[in-house]
Design a protein that fits this description.
Elements: H1 6-34, H2 39-65, H3 71-81, H4 90-114, H5 130-152, H6 159-173, H7 182-188, H8 202-223
């Protein structure tokens, strides 16, 4: 079976990434309103909603685009699969990254608007420091290893649950609350709410995430040296290009 047209895949990545940001931001706003004086409960509510939404979105859009929703995953998919003819083509990678990043911004705008906030309000929440950047490195590297480990071991069918569970857990075990996604990081700069990040903090977060991507690829080379052969199964199985 051949892959859907590239335009359809880009719409899936745009929409899926946007709805993921809507879930992250919207659940953060709801959590801050329901539990205004309990930061731990706010994080629990936010992480639970994000994990469930991510799993559902992977099921929804995975058969069309693979449900990457994340430039780090797409870059890894191209890099690891390029020598074996699997995964994203280089000519498609830019489109995936652009669609993901472009989709993240209206996702934040939609969440703001649903909660009667200004559609665009740049965050004032500073997130910086080596400990937070290390958290992003760990979160992103772990995510890359997870999705390729599942694909390489023929367990991609459980990716919706596994990826959702990992991100939900990483909210708690990383100091940065696991953004783990350059596109989502950009989108979260457009909301001055619980999930926001000040625009000035975005470049360092993205740099840490890309460093985590490299670390994840390095670890995969040791643990799953032929992971690239399963690039067509990331995040979930999808038809291949003719």
């Amino acid at each position: 079976m051949t892959a859907p047209p590239l335009a359809r895949r880009l719409v899936a990545e745009f929409t899926g990434t946007g709805l993921l940001v809507t879930a992250v931001v919207g659940s953060g706003i709801m959590a801050s309103r329901l539990s205004p004086h309990d930061g731990g409960l706010q994080l629990l509510e936010n992480s639970t909603a994000t994990a469930l939404a991510l799993g559902a979105l992977i099921l929804m859009f995975g058969p069309v685009s693979g449900a990457h929703f994340n430039p780090a995953v797409s870059i890894a998919d191209w890099w690891l699969g390029r020598r074996t003819g699997h995964g994203l083509r280089l000519s498609h990678l830019g489109g995936y990254v652009a669609a993901q990043t472009a989709g993240a911004i209206p996702g934040a705008v939609l969440a703001n608007t649903m909660f009667a906030l200004p559609p665009v309000a740049f965050s004032h929440t500073t997130r910086g420091g080596a400990h937070l950047w290390l958290g992003e490195l760990v979160a992103t590297g772990g995510l890359v290893v997870l999705v390729f480990a599942l694909a390489r071991s023929a367990r991609a069918s459980v990716a919706p649950a596994a990826v959702g569970a990992y991100i939900g857990a990483a909210y708690w075990f990383t100091s940065s609350t696991s953004f783990a996604n350059p596109a989502v990081t950009v989108g979260r700069a457009f909301t001055d709410t619980f999930a926001g990040i000040v625009p000035a903090s975005v470049p360092a977060f993205v740099a840490a995430q890309l460093t985590g991507l490299l670390a994840g690829i390095g670890l995969l080379a040791v643990l799953y040296p032929h992971a690239g052969q399963a690039a067509d199964e990331v995040v979930v199985p999808q038809p291949t290009d003719p």
